[in-house]
Please model this.
Amino acid sequence: MSFIKVLDQGYVRLVNHMGSDLSIVNAARVSYAKESHELSEKDMKLIQFLAREGHTSPFRHVVLQYEIYAPLMVARQWWKYVIGSSHAEGTGDSMEAWNESSRRYITEEPAFYIPGSEEWRSKPENSKQGSGEVLGNELGEKLSSELLQYIDLGVQKYEEAIQNGVCAEQARLFLPAYGMYVRWYWTASLQSVCHFLNQRLEHDAQKEIQDYAKAILELSKPLYPVSVDELIGKK
Model:
């Protein structure tokens, strides 16, 4: 499996990957000029040791590439994992990459995330961020309807601007931003992927990005079953 649908129109697609659990073992053992050709119980214990003791550089020798289609509010939370991805063991440039579609150049039909009437959540009682219980269906229907009207108006103004000769990079100002779907490629080491998972699979993470994190986990764990288990626990 290399494709998982998320939310109403979003998805995560595994585009490519490099290496295996064995690659991580051999990256660690190269210091002693040793190499394994088949993953053994001893190799698994080495992976456990590396993860437990924070010796994370071997986990940066395997890489995953995903295509992601998600609302902008999810993309901007995700983006900080690229900005802040300098690894703990050393300095230098990040090995992560992020390339996103841009409405400076494309004018394809915009798509938006519109929560269903049963998906609107209340604000939390004891926190300044996050969400609480699901709101009632009656209020949810009202909110979904109002959001749809708001989006329709923005799309209409956007299309009028394009028809009137306004450049795409300015016409996009009319589009409601946070719920608009964007598409990007994310390429990251297994260490970076698991750092993202450790934080965004937590119960207090925003539900929408939790849903994407679950898809990333489902696509990634079969490729590196031992390492993922050790790096993120048994989430």
Notes: DSSP finds eight helices and five strands in the chain. The chain has two domains: 3-105+181-232, 114-178. The radius of gyration is 21 Å. Helices lie at 21-29, 41-53, 72-83, 137-163, 168-171, 190-200, 207-220, 225-232.
